[in-house]
Amino acid sequence: MRVSLRSIALFAALAVSGLGLVLLGGPSAASAAAPTPSAPCIGSSAPAHYAHVVVIVEENKSYNQVMGHAPYETAVSKACGFAANMRAETYPSLPNYLAMTSGAVPGAVAGRDCQPSGDCMASAPTIFDQTAGSWRVYAESMPGNCARKNTPDGLYVPRHTAAPYFTGLAAACLTHQVPLGTTAAGALAGDLKAGTLPMFALVVPNTTNDAHGGCLSCADAWLSRWVPKIVASPAYQDGATAVFITYDSDDASAKNHIATLVIAPSVKPGTVATGAYTHYSMLRTIESMLGLRGRLGGAASALGMRPVFNL
């Protein structure tokens, strides 16, 4: 077949103009796309180490109550990836928050939802310690830094924030656990805009927006506002940030089978992980992603999530 010089020139012009043609095996326009709020996961190359991991914890819903029933979370699970067989450690809420940040359920809080004082404290090492100060807990409706009591309206409860319960974090909590603010202004919005997001961030919605009070639609709507804000940030756009959305436990209806979504530019859309995961698996994965030394407690033997999610 004869190919004219005009045809060759036209082919080259189309390739350069980014209309999807590939010349000599070069990257296509699709592979060079940037993540967007509607397509936050594009299957890009995963970095050896991530600069930031954000964990958002919702409350008291089983996997089957969330998947297919919470529109935004269901859409994100398809646009990114989710763990289909993940379970929380125990009941009630507090022990799970401490488990996902320390790798164990401290004996002092086993089977308890209590406020951080007296015998309701733990001395275990945590992922907060591992990051050497590069952490923040962003708590919605918290009246001041590291508040240690429930607010009168019950919207803020310290048992959903983990950090106040560890004796070794007493001083650091006063500066590192801060009120969340709104998507327009406040601690998290400011850190996203300024590029000052810490290595590890725990984001805690209030008890309406975390579904604790039964309002799954409230939690889903809250996520639909905050996740796009994170995805649009420079930290996420440069490929160095990942987000986990998980639940502390189910409502005691499904043997603690919970929904967990994994969002990062490197995640291949539609990923479904069927391994037997727990919060310890998430902790192990985050420790590895951030290049942290050691594995805390149950994270040492838990099944990691990096390979299947391309993290």
Question: What does this entry look like structurally?
Answer:
29% of the residues lie in helices and 15% in strands. Mean pLDDT is 91; it is low at 1-31. The N and C termini lie far apart (46 Å). With 311 residues, it is an alpha/beta fold. The protein folds into two domains: 1-32, no CATH class; 33-309, Alkaline Phosphatase, subunit A, CATH 3.40.720.10. The longest helix has 16 residues, at 216-231. Strands 1, 2, 3, 4, 5, 6, 7, 8 and 9 form a nine-stranded mixed beta sheet that branches.
Termini separation: 46 Å
By DSSP (H or I, 4+ residues per run), the number of helices equals: 11
Return the structural class: alpha/beta
Order of helices and strands: HEHHEHHEHEHEHHEEEEHH
Average pLDDT confidence is: 91
